[in-house]
What does this fold into?
Amino acid sequence: MTNAYRVAVLGATGAVGTEMVKLLQERHFPLASLKLLASERSAGKWVDFAGEAVPVEVLKPEALKGLDIVLGAAEADVSRQYAGAIVEAGAIFVDNSSAFRQDPAVPLVVPEVNLADLAWHTGIVANPNCSTILLVVAVWPLHRHRPLKRLVVSTYQAASGAGAAGMAELERQTRQVLAGEVPTAEVFPHPIAFNLFPHNSAIGADRYCEEERKMIRETRRIFHSEALPVAVTCVRVPVLRAHSEAVNLEFEEPFPVAEALALLREAPGLQVVEDWERNHFPMPVEASGQDVVLVGRVRADLSCPGALDLWLSGDQIRKGAALNAVQIAEQLAGGRR
It folds into this structure.
């Protein structure tokens, strides 16, 4: 590769793809060219990039030739369909879908945590699930210092986790409820406005939903700790954008709160938000649009010696998806950040 890179965004008109394009511009990624690829219904649209109009092209094999890096923001079946063609064309595929997250031949990377795994890629790099990314960025500095004995997390996942359509449904249902109408559900299985429910991904025979299983498997894989006990409950909440998580961390030995806070304050990708007098801790409205994960309310678990509780909020479209992929691309382009 040269000092400027021929980049394509696959699924460029969706919520994550749109954010990827913004971040490439905001972070001054060294582009030789930018190609925006999407389905036929989006073809012919134009997207502004650094003052220039870039056309949206139909995704097809011939459109993948002559590229260095492809950022994937499409569904898993699309990623599986085109991954081979991307690699055969000589590009590196940084995929945000679930298609390759559990493939042992594909590194699953969060740059703040396991950047070294990027070294053994063979043309494909996987982005973890959004909730997993936010979790491991906050937990890794503590786990690296004092290994975890057990990890328990409950998520509070915004409508934006279902993309632009999920956000639009929350807005529409909110207007319906306030107008005294019965909200109609199309994207989610239940009304999301003024309501919450367990995550709507498929539930398996073990009674865990797929979102919960993703977080368990991916956290273990990123931490290189397949035996780590991880318990997860995922909940969809009526928040427009940015996920939050309540995290319980049990360690092999006591972990002083002051020591934990010092590590979190120094860790990349995090911002500690704690104002105990004002009861001000991480909130989705403050995490939205931010690149960092907000973490706070760090305290000793009074029920379990050696355990800590913390709370986090993070924009799952940015750090939980688009930003993580762009950071990986930056590393592939020479470790610029």
Observations:
- The chain has two domains: 5-128+321-332, 132-316.
- Residues 5-128+321-332 form a domain with the Rossmann fold fold (CATH 3.40.50.720).
